[in-house]
Design brief:
The chain is mainly alpha-helical. The chain is built from three helices and no strands. The protein starts with 15 loop residues before the first helix and ends in an 11-residue tail after the last helix.
């Protein structure tokens, strides 16, 4: 990480109902569906990143890098949590408004 910068683990919650509103991305059904689909893939990718870094964590000797690894794992975990919640809400909708025919 660049000198003078730190990775801060932020526990942020989003208003997911607002995010699941019709055409949340520029009021465009295609963009909305595309980014909703991307969100479905994020938890698996974030898990892969976490496990990849965790695999080598014990070999790291530099205390600053060890702290950065811990922060990275924490932040990716928080990020993944939000995507899982969003994806659960998204997949639980039987007829999402943003898919309704005009």
């Amino acid at each position: 990480m660049p000198e003078g910068m730190t990775l801060e683990v932020r526990n942020i919650e989003f208003d997911l109902n607002k995010q699941l509103s019709k055409g949340w991305l520029d009021n465009d059904p295609f963009k909305t569906a595309f980014f909703n689909a991307l969100s479905m893939s994020f938890p698996a990718g974030e898990c892969f990143f976490i496990e990849s870094v965790r695999h080598f964590r014990d070999e790291v000797k530099d205390p600053k890098l060890k702290q950065e690894i811990s922060s990275f794992i924490g932040q990716e975990g928080m990020h993944s949590r939000q995507h899982r919640k969003y994806n659960q809400m998204l997949s639980g909708r039987q007829n999402p408004q943003w898919l309704d025919a005009q």
